[in-house]
Amino acid sequence: MFSKVLIANRGEIAVRIIRALDELGIASVAVYSELDRDAPHAARGGESYLLGGAAPGESYLNVERILDIVRRSGAEAVHPGYGFLAENAAFARACEQAGVVFIGPPADAIDAMGSKTRARELMRDAGVPIVPGTVEAVQSLRDAERIAADEIGYPVAVKAAGGGGGKGFRVALKPAELQDAFEGAAREGEKFFSDATVYLERYLPDPRHVEVQVLADGHGNTIHLGERDCSIQRRHQKLIEESPAPAWVVDEALRERIGTIAVEAARAVDYRGAGTVEGLLSVSEEGTREYFFLEMNTRVQVEHCVTEMTTGIDIVKEGIRVASGEPLSVAQADVVLRGHAIECRINAEDASKTFAPAPGRIGRYVEPSGPGVRVDSGVRAGSEISPTYDPMVAKLIVWDADREQATRRMLRALAEYEIEGLETLIPFHRALLATEQWARGETCRDLLEDKAWLEALATEQAPAAQGAPAETDTVEQTYTVEVSGRRFDVRVIGPPGGAGAAAAANGSAAAPAPKRPSRAARDSAARDNGHGSDTLASPMQGSVWKIPVKAGQQVVAGEVVTIIEAMKMENEITAHKAGVIAELPISEGDLVRNGDVLAVIADA
Q: Which one of 198, 233, 498, 537 has the largest count of C-beta atoms within 10 Å of its C-beta?
């Protein structure tokens, strides 16, 4: 077993790995960027070293600097976590050349599964079912048009060969949309994975996203730990995961079949460590089920926690043991699924604004607890959620005897979670988990695409759960009083600076912490910005990626005016009204802040 391991990552996954190392009696080495100097993971490591600047290329993607710290610290192995260098075969080889163990699969396995086209070819040859489409990369838009029209049909999915995590994935519902989908997928592939090649697949309109956790060692043992249902997604990025899948979706026979498919897929590339075989499950109206291999994530998954809760197997520890040369501590016959687990991703996003990134600094921060509740986080009060990195604040995981009871426990835990200073997905999760669609085990895609339903999350009820003020010009304060030995919480609502505030200031009750301006006030200020209702303001902080319109051009409501990159996502900003672009004070590459003017749209 190793004596010291470096974690080449940040945030909640770095903290998660450090905890596993502590329990195994292994010393940990943390690394951090200039932006993460005060981050919990930097303080949590046994040793901590500065990598470089805030930009990932200067820090968490800086292979030379990471390996230098490995040498200086005396670490014998590197755990990459997920994201950044976790699925980088060149980094795995660089570790091997430096005499350092890469805690993950062999570089050849990463290469094989990292290229989606190569993976599809391997799986086809191994007899694993794949979604109908191209196996080789599509070289040009003209080729894509011909293949889509003659071989696959519409709707068609265009995917980056090196893509993952929802990036490099576009859909063309009809021929007129193929060019944008082809160019968008290629652009994101080049940007995020340095690979602009794309391929085409038949687009399944409303499939279940069902994946299988696998573990493999260097002694010929490969097992699966059952499935996770990750069908609650927006823009092909996961929001809620559960294990096992709802009973009507995956029964024991199907579980055994897709588990066997996952094991065969892992063996086909001589896999070692923890990995996930992702698949799409198409369920017809008649109940017929078709399961297709989608891709393999050659790393620990964000949502590995729900599988740990239902199996009792520590996936991170197993990966570390396997990398040190030990065999798996469990056999397939030892794997038993008990109860039901649900994970909600607590991201700094505003669901009421189509999940716009909402970076900022955390104020008051209180995590839920109690029976069956787990929080994996890498933040604390005062932590900053920066637009430089992804928007995850934490993962909230619960377990209970069955899906219905686990849902109730999750709703209780979400109600206990206090995060002030940020817009998060807590209101979204509370609203969605209370719907009949969730109770029936549906994909809830209709809700996630229902703009009116999402916008309703901005009403008083949802943000109130996070301590946000009501959408009025009044101030609400809560006082605690005792009457005949019984405690009561009394709410006092009145104008700012009114009697209630004065009483608090005079010491008759504790004054609550200052609150942010109301959402209505913030939105109004951003919308007006000196131009009245003609102004299109930026709803987020980020950089201008593309501007598909020009000054003087007529636009209709909902037409894309610009695309802003924020928190590793491209966000389309659309016209809020029809008219003429009177002013366009932005250029591609500009940095913009929340509320900055992007365009002025005058009446036609």
A: 198
Same domain, 213 and 331: yes
* Same domain flag for 174 and 224: no
The predicted-structure confidence for 170-187, as pLDDT tens digits, reads as follows 999 999 999 999 999 998
CATH for 554: 2.40.50.100
User: Residue 159 belongs to what domain range?
Assistant: 132-202
- Summarize the confidence of residues 76-87 as an average pLDDT: 96
Q: Which tokens is 151 given?
A: 């071989």
- What is the rounded distance in angstroms from the CA atom of residue 144 to the CA atom of residue 176? 12
Work out whether strand 392-400 and strand 340-347 pair parallel, antiparallel, or are unpaired: antiparallel
Question: In this predicted model, what pLDDT tens digit does every residue of 30-70 receive, in sequence order?
Answer: 999 999 999 999 999 999 999 999 999 999 999 999 999 99
Among all chains, which residue has been given the structure tokens 């790995």?
17
> Cα torsion at 176, 177, 178, 182 (round to 10°)?
140
Phi, psi of 481 (to 5 degrees): -130, 160
What single-letter DSSP state applies at residue 78?
E
Q: Are residues 228 and 193 in the same domain?
A: no
CATH code for the domain in which residue 13 is found: 3.40.50.20
Residue 116 domain-assigned? no
Q: Is there a single domain that holds both residue 242 and residue 309?
A: yes
To 10 degrees, the CA torsion angle through 302, 42, 35, 396? Answer: 30
One domain for residues 162 and 197: yes
DSSP secondary structure letter of residue 139: -
Let me know: does 379 contact 43? Beta carbons within 8 Å: no
Residues 261/227, Cβ–Cβ less than 8 Å: no
124 lies in some domain: no
Using left for φ > 0, alpha for ψ between -120 and 50, and beta otherwise, residue 78 falls in beta
Per-residue tokens: 578: 């029809």
CA 254 to CA 237: how far, in whole Å? Answer: 25
> What is the DSSP-derived secondary structure letter of residue 420?
-
Burial class, 550, CB count within 10 angstroms (exposed 0-12 / middle 13-18 / buried 19+): exposed
Q: Can you give the C-alpha Rg of the chain in angstroms?
A: 25
Does residue 356 sit in the same domain as residue 324? no
Is-above-0.90 flag for pTM? no
In a domain, 121, yes or no: no
Give dist(CA 275, CA 105) in Å, integer: 8
